[in-house]
Design a protein that fits this description.
Number of domains: 3
Distance between the termini: 65 Å
Radius of gyration: 21 Å
Mean pLDDT: 90
CATH superfamily of the largest domain: Jelly Rolls
CATH architecture of the largest domain: Sandwich
Order of helices and strands: HEEEEEEEEEEHHHHHHHHH
Low-confidence stretches: 1-16
Number of strands: 10
Number of helices: 10
Shape: globular
CATH topology of the largest domain: Jelly Rolls
Helix content: 25-40%
Strand content: 15-25%
């Protein structure tokens, strides 16, 4: 018996990723697989990350899933079998090894041990420039760059309310570019990305937008729209021009603004944290200490 996860004919685009967590838990329950000890998800319109820890062993059969799915094993050696497209693989997956399943393929998965992993979901329209990302089917491989991204996404997704969404979105885009270059069916010319930076007009517009929106959650798509660029072109061109990735620049600007407010001394730490888009005072404190080397309270006393 198969269990429906997602199908383009069933769900509108904005929901293709959004409800995957609940659907996955329903699949596990249906097949008698023990739910994971922790399951964290961060979703966007054209991609998402699901970080799983301590999921029980078992077997599931899945109907076609719209996004491409990259499954990265973060547990100890995992004996796994996969079936899709009339092909079957069975063998040991070492920590950091992965499988890539193209969009629209029914599949069957079995694993023998408790599982820690990252599921990276990338829709074919991820780049937002009219081109479609079509990936090849890979049952078992290792890519150190994708593995490093997966570990960072697993850690960031597990921070729950303190997750830096712009950071996760940027990592999804980095992974999509790697998939395009190394594991796609695109012709070689389509794998070449621009090396130019932003124009002065684009820089002015995006920096003004960031300054005006430090109080809220800023998405990579928001910044790209300001410059009239696709997501992956914007992210690359911004870093080339500004010397920092968009998520890092926004985070540093929030901390710089916090420093100014701390020096003025007129607002509490709670007021500062909420006015700068942090989910809580602890989120603000942890981020500030990580970037500055001192807590906001310590910085205020020293200023």
């Amino acid at each position: 018996m198969t269990e429906r996860i997602h199908s383009p004919a069933v769900l509108p685009e904005r929901e293709l990723i959004a409800d995957h967590r609940d659907k996955w838990l329903a699949v596990l329950d249906k097949h008698g697989v023990r739910r994971p000890k922790s399951l964290h998800q961060v979703n966007f319109k054209v991609g998402g990350v699901q970080a799983t820890s301590g999921e029980g062993p078992g077997t599931v059969e899945l109907e076609p899933f719209y996004p491409h799915v990259l499954v990265i094993n973060l547990s100890r050696t995992q004996h796994m079998s996969q079936e899709r497209g009339g092909r079957r693989f069975e063998g040991d997956m070492l920590r950091g090894e992965m499988a890539l399943m193209p969009s629209g393929m029914p599949s069957k998965w079995s694993w023998r041990n408790e599982c820690d992993r990252v599921d990276l979901m990338v829709c074919p329209e991820v780049f937002g420039d009219g081109r479609r990302l079509d990936v090849i089917d890979r049952f078992h491989f290792r890519d150190p760059e994708l593995e490093a991204l997966a570990r960072r996404m697993h850690a960031e997704a597990g921070r729950d309310a303190m997750t830096e969404r712009l950071y996760v979105e940027s990592m999804i885009m980095q992974a999509a570019v790697i998939l395009l270059r190394r594991y796609s069916t695109a012709p070689e010319p389509a794998k070449t990305l621009p090396n130019s930076g932003l124009t002065r007009s684009q820089v002015r517009r995006v920096l003004d937008y960031i300054e005006e929106n430090l109080h809220r959650d800023v998405a990579l798509r928001d910044l790209a729209d300001v410059t009239d660029l696709s997501l992956h072109h914007f992210a690359r061109m911004f870093k080339r021009t500004m010397g920092a990735a968009p998520h890092r620049y926004v985070l540093e600007r929030r901390v710089d603004r916090a420093k100014e407010m701390l020096r003025d001394g007129g607002e509490s730490l709670v007021e500062i944290s909420l006015s700068l888009g942090f989910s809580s005072q602890s989120h603000f404190t942890n981020t500030f200490r990580r970037l500055v080397g001192a807590t906001p309270g310590e910085f205020r006393l020293q200023s």
